């Protein structure tokens, strides 16, 4: 049954453009073990993506999902080496202690590269430990960390060349002036998105739909497909769940956490959408960009609330916080200096994020 269903996912599916494996040039040769990729339209059915990830890519259902919210830019402002090292170590410890899926923007720059470096270091340390004399008699395996890169096709230097079952890629450097970037080769999987929206916001909605699907469905996809395989049914529509099945589904919701590292103008809306869905958001203060603006506004309102025993002081926000936040936005994002409308939208989204985060009290 799985073979028939797998064929149906790709056949006559106008939303799935291409699929296969990416092989990166390393050590004077293309890697033998490729990285699975999927090129899709931004409005693809998320159920098809989930099916492919589980059944084609053999990814086990996650116990937790982490979405890294960050812009495509170097981490110039994040200079605290101890904080960076602690973040990388903590993330890998969490990923190795349970089945975690980590979603990034996938490019060889900024937060995605930082996480890719953490994965590479974790693999090297595991191999070194297993080859040492102290671990010679122990059994174990190299940690398999699922890090999925989600990026726009038109942002990749070789986006048009990612087509077919076997794709050979050679990273030669990002072209910052042209906004053309390369994939980080330490990610395990890639979702290349053809964003056909005018404002190019389809990529963010695509990422939001994936994590939202995982948070509400939980283990349902794997659970129902396995039932189909065992029963011989060829369509999920034929399956009628029992009371026990429904209880199992409701108990397998997957926790989602979003982590803001630096971040730019477009990231504010993504953070806001997550908070509206009451999903936790972790902001790494000191990483720069949007993260520092969110941290500033949150801490300012927290101090004000503590003094007034209130959750939101509208007069304080209008008279002090809005002007101060606008000045900080201009300093961190000079291109918004002459665009009052965009600057105010950015400012108001940040304040709305803070207001939603503080709804539970001071």
UniProtKB/TrEMBL annotation:
<dbReference type="InterPro" id="IPR041491">
    <property type="entry name" value="TRPM_SLOG"/>
</dbReference>
<dbReference type="GO" id="GO:0030001">
    <property type="term" value="P:metal ion transport"/>
</dbReference>
<feature type="domain" description="TRPM SLOG">
    <location>
        <begin position="36"/>
        <end position="306"/>
    </location>
</feature>
<protein>
    <recommendedName>
        <fullName>TRPM SLOG domain-containing protein</fullName>
    </recommendedName>
</protein>
<dbReference type="Pfam" id="PF18139">
    <property type="entry name" value="LSDAT_euk"/>
</dbReference>
<dbReference type="GO" id="GO:0005261">
    <property type="term" value="F:monoatomic cation channel activity"/>
</dbReference>
<dbReference type="GO" id="GO:0005886">
    <property type="term" value="C:plasma membrane"/>
</dbReference>
<dbReference type="InterPro" id="IPR050927">
    <property type="entry name" value="TRPM"/>
</dbReference>
